[in-house]
Amino acid sequence: MATNEEILTKLAEIVNDVAGVPVEDIQPDKSFIDDLDIDSLSMVEIVYALQEAFNIDIPDEDVKGLSTVADAVDYVEKAQKA
Questions:
Q1: Which are the catalytic amino acids?
Q2: Is the pTM of this model over 0.90?
Q3: Between the CA of residue 5 and those of 42, 44, 61, 74, what are the distances in Å?
C-alpha cells in the first residue's frame, strides 16, 4: 500500500504527463481546475492513470468530488484500504 507521499509523487507524475503541469506545482492545496488548469478530458485521463497505477476503482460519480490534489490523494489512500 502506497503512503500519502508516494501517492502525491505518482499523482504529480501523472498530471505532468497528461497536462504538462510542472511537478513542483502539484501541491495538496491546489485545485485541479482553478489552480492547475486541468480540463475535464485531462481529468478523465488522470483518473484512469490513477486507477491503473494503484489498482483501484474510481467510479464516475466519485470523480466530481476530486477537486483538489489532496482530495485525490485521500481518495486513493482510502480506496487502497477498502
A1: 39
A2: yes
A3: 22, 22, 25, 11
